[in-house]
């Protein structure tokens, strides 16, 4: 048996063992544990690898204990497996979080937040870094926004900060449980902020920046409709705008639940993927650059919101050019296309 085949077989056995015995562990905890094992496994002599017995791994409750069992085979310290460009400012931020609750004066709180944001800006995180660091980076950014919001009371802020202290040691399973709780809190906060933003937009009624669609399928014929696609193209051709799915013309919140059940097997992810794929196909994937799709809970119902930004060139839908004029999506007549391009793209 050649060396490459031997190694591949060992990795296969280890992965199969993880699949059978680590279902109850947090996913990221398992990923880093695998990373540490591979680091050890690939830096020791071939003969020594046979001494590592996969059947003993269920005895290792934490990464620290796990690391001690195999550290004699590792050529570099565990900390160096992860980017120092992340850890240095991250440790400073956690230290600032620790004393944040001591500040009561709004001016001092603002200065503290500005200082934390400056530290956050110093984090250098290569794209090749382990996925957990990108998750922590995004959560830090959203936590700073959370702390900056004057509508959030100090008790809620302190509760979030307290959970950050558990993420100091990434070698413990509790760190990943705390991160999951932080992400859940921030997700609820972002949903609430977006819901308030979109409720304000809905209150404006349809105009040159806002379009309402009750469904993406026709209620009578039960066939797919393309009016929402035309609206998205019109905004991308004219100006930034929002296409709401699940809102009636009279501004009432209908939601997409019925359409989800009828056409998308009750799956929100399936519906979002389908709509984005349809838009990307019709725009030759140009819409991927200019549109985002969000799902928001308002009044207990789910709505979808396409945020469309103006494209850098006219986008045609089935050979036709659409634009936004006041509260209407209209087709640009062929004889006016030159004038349209001069006004919006020159």
From TrEMBL:
InterPro entries linked to this entry: Schlafen_AlbA_2_dom, Schlafen_AlbA_2_dom_sf
Superkingdom, natural source: Bacteria
Presence of keyword rRNA processing: no
UniProt domain Schlafen AlbA-2: residue ranges: 206-331
GO molecular function: ATP binding
Keywords of this entry: ATP-binding, Nucleotide-binding
Protein known as: ATP-binding protein
Source organism: Acinetobacter rudis
């Amino acid at each position: 048996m050649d060396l490459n085949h031997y190694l591949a077989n060992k990795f296969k056995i280890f992965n199969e063992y993880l699949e059978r015995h680590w279902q109850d562990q947090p996913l990221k905890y398992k990923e880093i544990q695998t990373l540490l094992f591979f680091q050890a496994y690939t830096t020791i002599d071939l003969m020594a690898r046979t001494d590592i017995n996969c059947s003993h791994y269920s005895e290792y409750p934490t990464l620290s204990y796990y690391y001690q069992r195999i550290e004699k085979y590792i050529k570099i310290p565990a900390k160096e497996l992860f980017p120092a460009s992340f850890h240095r400012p991250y440790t400073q931020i956690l230290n600032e979080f620790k004393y944040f609750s001591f500040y009561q004066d709004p001016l001092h709180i603002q200065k503290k937040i500005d200082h934390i944001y400056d530290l956050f800006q110093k984090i250098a995180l290569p794209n090749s870094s382990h996925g957990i660091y990108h998750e922590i980076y995004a959560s830090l950014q959203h936590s700073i926004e959370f702390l900056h919001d004057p509508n959030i009371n100090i008790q809620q802020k302190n509760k979030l900060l307290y959970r950050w202290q558990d993420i100091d040691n990434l070698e413990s399973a509790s760190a990943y449980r705390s991160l999951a709780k932080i992400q859940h809190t921030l997700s609820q906060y972002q949903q609430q902020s977006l819901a308030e933003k979109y409720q304000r937009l809905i209150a404006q009624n349809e105009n040159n920046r806002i379009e309402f669609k009750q469904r993406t399928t026709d209620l009578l014929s039960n066939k797919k409709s393309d009016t929402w696609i035309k609206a998205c193209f019109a905004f991308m051709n004219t100006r930034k705008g929002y296409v709401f799915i699940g809102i009636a013309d009279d501004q009432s919140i209908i939601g997409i639940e019925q359409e989800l059940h009828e056409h998308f097997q009750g799956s929100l992810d399936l519906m979002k993927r389908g709509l984005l794929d349809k838009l990307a196909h019709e725009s030759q994937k140009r819409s991927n650059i200019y549109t985002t799709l969000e799902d928001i809970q308002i009044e207990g119902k789910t709505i979808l919101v396409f945020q469309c930004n103006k494209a850098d060139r006219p986008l045609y839908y089935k050979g036709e050019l659409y634009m936004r004029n006041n509260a209407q999506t209209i087709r640009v007549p062929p004889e006016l296309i030159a004038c349209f391009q001069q006004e919006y793209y020159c």
